[in-house]
Design brief:
Blueprint lengths: L4 E12 L5 H16 L8 E5 L5 H5 L1 H9 L5 E5 L5 H14 L5 E9 L16 H9 L3 H16 L3 H15 L13 H6 L2 E3 L2 E2 L8 E9 L1 H6 L6 E7 L30 H13 L8 E4 L4 H10 L8 H6 L16 H5 L3 H17 L12 E8 L3 E8 L1
Parallel strand pairs: 2-3, 2-4, 9-10
Antiparallel strand pairs: 1-7, 1-8, 4-7, 5-6, 8-11, 10-11
Helix pairs in contact: 1-3, 4-14, 6-11, 7-11
Length: 396
């Protein structure tokens, strides 16, 4: 298809708490992706950096920051910020440049050095900023929203705390097989239940950590890939970065109110479902064609929501999917074969790029002990603050 681009390289810096600069992490990931692609840094036409607001000025101009760290060689640079969707926005920007024939080879990099504990807004007084307001007015940290989402599922669909725990059990089992994961240890449902309550009904092991880490991709035109000797590379076929539509009847992070549905009926589909639907339409596929999915499991309950938003099952059926083992390694539609954020934690600009790295390794058949047999089509899904949709479809 004319909209395809090739993924020639994927690289990561392992996730953890390393106490070093995000620039160091991103440079390691970038060099790993270049080596994986067999591409010399001087061949890169463009660098797209996913920004981090925690890196000072270098974090806000991450494209140039990484180009400088690798050694100025004249490449064009782009820096993008979309909170947790920054990585997908970076992939989308790279894809647009390639399809517009502005570049043949684009390096995409995201890296972060996260604070301990939950994320908080940047400093200053900003009464027009919903993210600042929800902390100042409500004191509502991210886990407070995760708990509300979980309670909503329990009320609407009858989900239980054990259903949520089984998501952690599944993801920890996959993460234990991933050398880049921060947490590489199997976890039992009993251990989840015994961990501290953070935002009832969610416990510490239901919620992802904040981490340091990085991921990078080398993306090229299909013509360049063929000239480079890659006859059948993994290809990105769709990038969805849609926004919500009004009216919005369900509270969503970081907002503290919804808008009225009195005059106009709410959409039958949620915002997250719209993210996936746009990706499917652009790729010309449906959920039944997926081999695997990487989703944004900020909490165990939120992963169940993604199953439904991606069309892997009907509304309210997410818990049954995990109970039946359908989303485990070896199941009908494995989800978060990487181990997900449950095993990695959040390194915000890197995580959507890391999801595409996992799809790349799975579709190549090089994912080792966590390999999905015969993987041909995968989707990523996450969401950034303020209506940044994020999904990428990759095929082989």
């Amino acid at each position: 298809m004319s909209g395809d681009i090739a993924v020639l390289g994927a690289g990561m810096h392992p996730w953890g708490k390393w106490g070093r600069s995000f620039v160091e992490y991103g440079t390691v990931a970038a060099r790993a992706a270049l080596a994986d692609a067999g591409i010399d840094w001087t061949q890169v036409d463009s660098v797209v950096g996913a920004d981090t607001v925690r890196g000072g000025y270098p974090g806000y101009v991450s494209g140039a920051t990484f180009a400088r760290a690798l050694g100025w060689q004249g490449a064009r640079v782009t820096s993008v910020y979309a909170a947790c969707a920054s990585g997908a926005q970076a992939v989308g920007a790279a894809r647009a440049q390639i399809l517009a024939r502005l570049a043949d080879v684009v390096l995409v990099v995201g890296a972060d050095a996260a604070p301990k504990g939950f994320f908080a807004p940047a400093g200053g007084e900003r009464p027009d900023d919903p993210d600042w307001l929800r902390f100042r007015v409500l004191g509502a940290t991210n886990p407070a929203y995760f708990g509300l989402y979980a309670r909503r599922r329990m009320a609407l669909h009858g989900d239980t705390v054990d259903d949520f725990a089984q998501v952690k059990v599944k993801n920890a089992a996959a993460g234990a097989l991933n050398p880049n994961a921060r947490y590489r240890k199997a976890v039992s449902a009993e251990e989840v239940a015994a961990s501290a309550v953070v935002a009832d009904p969610l416990r510490l092991l239901d919620i992802c950590a904040t981490s340091d880490g990085a991921a990078a991709l080398v993306l090229t035109s299909m013509d360049f890939a063929r000239r480079h000797g890659a006859a059948d590379p993994v290809r990105i076929r769709a990038v969805s970065t849609v926004t919500p539509t009004y009216p919005r009847a369900v509270l969503d992070l970081p907002d503290i109110a919804t808008d009225s549905a009195a005059a106009v009926a709410p959409s039958p589909h949620s915002f997250r479902a719209a993210i996936a639907r746009a990706a499917y339409e652009e790729a010309g596929i449906g959920p039944e064609e997926l081999s695997l999915a990487e989703v944004y499991d900020l909490s165990t309950a939120l992963e169940l929501e993604w199953y439904e938003d991606l069309g892997l099952c009907g509304t309210g059926e997410g818990a049954k999917l995990v109970r039946d083992g359908a989303t485990s390694l070896g199941g009908r539609i494995p989800v978060n074969t990487s181990g997900g954020l449950a095993s990695f934690g959040e390194a915000v600009p890197a995580q959507a790029i890391a999801q595409v790295c996992e799809l790349t390794w799975q579709l190549r058949g090089t994912a080792g002990a966590r390999q999905v047999t015969g993987a041909r089509v995968g989707i990523t899904a996450n969401q950034g603050l303020f209506g940044h949709g994020s999904a990428v479809v990759a095929v082989r």
